[in-house]
Amino acid sequence: MAISTDLKCDVLVVGAGPSGSMTAKWAAKNGADVIMIEKRQEIGSPVRCGEGISKSWLADVGITPSSRWINVEVEGARIYSPSEKVMEINEKHAGNEVGYVVERDAFDKALAIDAANAGTTIHLKTHALDVLRKDGRVTGVKAKQFGQKFEIHASVVVGADGFESQVGRWAGIPTNLQIRDMDSCLQYRMTNVDSDVRYCDFYLGKCAPGGYVWVFPKGDGLANVGIGVQVSKLHHPAEVRDYLDRWIAQHPGYAKGKKIDMVGGGVSISPPIKQSVADGVMLVGDAARMIDPLTGGGIANGCIAGKICGEVAARAAKSGRTSKADLMEYDRRWRAVLEEKLLRNWVAKEKLVSLPDETFDKIIDVLSGVRLEKLSVLNILKAVRERYPEVTQEFENLL
């Protein structure tokens, strides 16, 4: 039954992905009356990522690992150079995309269940059409469900609506992306493949210009096999599929497999957004460019920021202090946790996309024989400089 009357709440979250559900959960847990809307009829579907996450951050945001959404627990990652020299990294140091391979739709639903259990009201198949304003401040959204238009009035509106955030654009927050800061991604779920369930695999170089090929094992001969290619390096939209199909054909353990599912879409690989709040509005997750520019992964960062966003939104709504200046507490807190790494990885990405395959081979050659206490762009560059100083000349500003 469609909503026929206007609604009112303290905090309105637009988008029920991980960042949105985390924001809604923590806003509700902090006493706010929360509504979350999702334009799709099913949370988590269609799946739009490789389905890998790390373990280290889950407890910090109140997520309990569950067999309902975990497929495989991996030991670490293997990174392959263009000549397929391999570097192994244990799960602890492999980044925010390695640890568990999950069923992303089930994971997203689990976070939405947590938000609902905390007190959030969720409306599905509900589209935001524009923001509402009063005296220049965002005060809610115009929405539509099953053809019926209505308004949702809120003290704080949170845009958790992806890297193409309409909420941000409607609120006047600059959200433009440059072509070099976008990847086009395509992924198959394949059966009858020879993936090693102990590792998530990543292949670098000309097989995926400006990005990489990934293999995330799902167990029982299943794996997600995908690719991200920098949009500026593509000549036509179908080229990303051609790159992935070519890579699969060149690897017998995957060439013999069968495709049973396919998803595609764009991913931002940009620096973090310069402005994440305005009067009455906040942006979180992909909408605030919290995706790691090197890996294209954003679930962990979005959830970490979502907890902060929910806490600040609840406090602001209950106090009636919802100006941009008041909401800057959120901006300062998430940047203190995430921004330095995001900026460093964006600069590294800018350099890496121009490197020839020979240089990638040298980097992996060094790293395969070095034990790093902590895997980071800085430590990688220091290790490579010891053996191939010429490789790191372009990265001196990061050292």
Task: Give the key terms.
8-stranded mixed sheet; alpha/beta; 7-stranded mixed sheet; FAD/NAD(P)-binding domain; 3 domains; 30% helix; 18 strands
Task: Provide an overview of this structure.
This protein has helices at residues 18-29, 104-117, 166-170, 239-249, 252-255, 299-319, 324-352, 357-367, 377-387, and strands spanning 7-14, 34-37, 52-53, 70-73, 76-80, 86-90, 100-102, 121-123, 126-134, 137-145, 148-159, 182-191, 199-203, 212-219, 222-230, 258-268, 277-278, 281-283. It is of the alpha/beta class and 399 residues long. It has three domains: 7-48 and 106-177 and 273-349, FAD/NAD(P)-binding domain (3-Layer(bba) Sandwich), CATH 3.50.50.60; 72-100 and 179-268, D-Amino Acid Oxidase, Chain A, domain 2 (2-Layer Sandwich), CATH 3.30.9; 355-398, no CATH class. The strands form three sheets. Strands 1, 2, 8, 9, 10, 11, 17 and 18 form an eight-stranded mixed β-sheet that branches. A seven-stranded mixed β-sheet has the order 6-5-13-14-15-12-16. A three-stranded antiparallel β-sheet has the order 3-7-4. A hairpin with a 2-residue loop joins strand 9 and strand 10. Helix 1 (18-29) packs parallel to helix 6 and helix 8 packs across helix 9 (377-387).
